[in-house]
Amino acid sequence: MEPTGNDPPLLFTPINLRGIAARNRIVSSPMCQYASDDGAPGAWQLVNFGRFAMGGCGIVFTEETAVDVRGRKTHECAGIYHDHHVPLYRRITDFIREQGAVPAIQLGHCGRRASQHGPLKDRAPLTEADATGKLRPWQGLSASALPPTPGGNIPKAMDLDDIRDCLAAWRAAAQRALDAGYELCEIHGAHGYLIHQFLSPLSNLRTDGYGGDLQGRMRFALEVAETVRAVWPPDRPLWFRVSAVEGPGGVWGIEETLALARALKERGVDAIDCSSGGVGGEQGLAPVPRVPGFQAGYASEIRRVSGLPTIAVGMIREPAHAEALLREGHADFIALARGLMDDPNWPLHAARELGVADPLALVHPREAQRLRQLEQHAREYPRGSAVAVPYGTEEQAPYSWDTGIAGRAARRA
Q1: What is the largest CA-CA distance in the chain?
Q2: How many angstroms separate the CA atoms of 350 and 331, rounded?
Q3: Residue pair 302/243 in contact by the 8 Å Cβ criterion
Q4: Which of 22, 182, 255, 330 has the maximal Cβ count within 10 Å?
Q5: d(C-alpha 333, C-alpha 205), whole Å
Q6: Is residue 261 within 8 Å of residue 243, measured between CB atoms?
Q7: Which of 318, 366, 321 is nearest to 343 (CA)?
Q8: How far is CA 297 from CA 250, 274, 312, 329, 399, in A?
Q9: What is the DSSP string of 198-224?
Q10: Could you tell me if 79 and 73 are in contact, meaning their C-beta atoms sit under 8 angstroms apart?
């Protein structure tokens, strides 16, 4: 569907989410920063996530935030498992909101992917040789006692008490997120983390009510959704991130995801964030190619079958591509992660490219005022026009549009 000459770009059309309004459909996707101190954010998070709000995003996620201290991948991962975390996150959410964006949090638990180094050290398992002071390896939790990778640390298979305690941690984290000023919450059920470990038959070998067939393997995910929705206010949206298909050799595919999406919808989930990967094996699925919009087809199918709004994410770099995905009904939101790291002002630049009437309305008036001057100067001196730059009261030099300099002629002796 092509926009008419009078239609504003759908990418920049405001949208209501329960009682929350987003100024546009651009989402800064959660990106782990590995820069927290015992889960707590600092200046890095304020600046990093604040710049996406300043750049014009409609919804700004901070990062995947652990609901329990054991649910972090590394000692540097974000968490919201202490009450003293709340005012530190409030500083960030207040700033995001002041810039006109919706502050959003993604709550998660890494499960068996616990006790690792960060990506700069290839996520290698922590060992006692790595221990410094109180920073020691710890045992993760999972659906079954299977390592995340060959030779990886063996997690504890969660018993019913562990599941009960974990659900209580999700409940407490959701309440803290609310107290911290977040307006949108997303449950991380993808990327081989704890919820995904319960969903996949490759990582869930249980024989009780939390394993076996699809309904059993979905039980933990649905209980998490019910737990968070019971805390999260009715006027605030709840999203859920899925791995629509697993990684190479995985067996969880789109049909299983559609069943999960329908069940989540019944439990008050408002939208599905469509990612992929995280659990692999030696069976059926091929690798997902990292091409522009490589996960948008999943968003389209989930949206069509479940009737839920969806978020398309993955290598969407061109504004016209983002707009087409919305216009053609494949998704309701466009999320960017590394693209925003490369260009935090992507929304502003996209607004210009798509012909928004006043792109500078996306940024703070202090910035807009100076940027309007920049545009004014460009109008006053169009490229190629004859320009002379003064060197004195009686001396001027012609400006060159090729070299960008007004060269002073050599004086004759």
Answers
A1: 98
A2: 18
A3: no
A4: 182
A5: 35
A6: no
A7: 318
A8: 18, 9, 8, 11, 51
A9: HH-TTT----STTSSSHHHHHHHHHHH
A10: no
Q: Which residues is 275 bridged to in the sheet?
A: 243
Catalytic residues: 193
Number of H helices, E strands in the chain: 11, 15
Q: Which amino acid is at 168?
A: A
Q: pTM of the prediction?
A: 0.94
Contacts 24+ apart (CB under 8 A), 226-233: 226/267, 227/167, 227/170, 227/171, 227/174, 228/107, 228/170, 228/171, 228/174, 228/185, 228/187, 229/267, 229/268, 229/269, 230/171, 231/171, 231/174, 231/175, 231/178, 232/174, 232/178, 232/185, 233/178
For 295-316, give the DSSP string. Answer: THHHHHHHHHHH---EEEESS-
Q: Give the distance, in angstroms, between the CA of residue 274 and the centroid of all CA atoms in the same chain.
A: 11
User: Which position has the token pair 């996520």?
Assistant: 123
Contact present, 279 and 202 (Cβ < 8 Å): yes
Domains of the chain, first to last: 10-379 (3.20.20.70)
Beta-carbon contacts of 181 under 8 Å, excluding residues fewer than 6 positions away, are 89, 90, 93, 94, 97, 103
Closest CA to 239 of 180, 165, 130, 313: 313
Q: Rounded to the nearest 5°, which phi and psi values hold at 81? A: -105, 0
- Stated length of the chain: 413
Q: Supply angle C-alpha 23, 29, 30, rounded to 5.
A: 125
Output 336-339 pairs: Cβ under 8 A, ≥24 positions apart.
336/26, 336/27, 336/28, 336/29, 337/28, 337/29, 337/30, 337/31, 337/313, 338/31, 339/315
Q: What is the pLDDT along the chain (413 residues), one digit of tens a residue?
A: 445 456 899 999 999 999 999 999 999 999 999 999 999 999 999 999 999 999 999 999 999 999 999 999 999 999 999 999 999 999 999 999 999 999 999 999 999 999 999 999 989 999 888 888 878 999 999 999 999 998 889 999 999 999 999 999 999 999 999 999 999 999 999 999 999 999 999 999 999 999 999 999 999 999 999 999 999 999 999 999 999 999 999 999 999 999 999 999 999 999 999 999 999 988 889 999 999 999 999 999 999 999 999 999 999 999 999 999 999 999 999 999 999 999 999 999 999 999 999 999 999 999 999 999 999 999 999 999 999 999 999 999 999 999 999 988 764 44
SS3 230: helix
Question: Both tokens of residue 226?
Answer: 């019910």
Q: Where are the beta strands (DSSP E) in 88-222?
A: 102-108, 141-142, 156-157, 184-189
